[in-house]
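Please check the following for our workbook:

***
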Amino acid sequence: MTWQELGPERVEVLRTFEAGSPLPFRLKMRGYHRLQVEAYFRKLAELAGAGRPPEISPPAFEIVMRGYDRAQVDAFLAPLFQTPRN
């Protein structure tokens, strides 16, 4: 996986989040724990500056009341964990 596979829009989201902007995910009645998601995205933002990021394990976010939309978070992270096609 390379950061280019994330696409420029996703890399820009990481950069703006690192600069202090909120994540672009809706809040849902039952969603991913916001603090866990934000901590994971901070880690991704730090790694985005590296030339070649280390292996990243898929997150296991807790589902809570008033969390981030699971479908939106999963869709954003999907390119990180897709297996390459030959």
Observations:
- The radius of gyration is 13 Å.
- The helical segments are 8-18, 34-48, 70-81.
- The CA atoms of residues 58 and 81 lie 7 Å apart.
- The chain is about 45% helix and 15% strand.
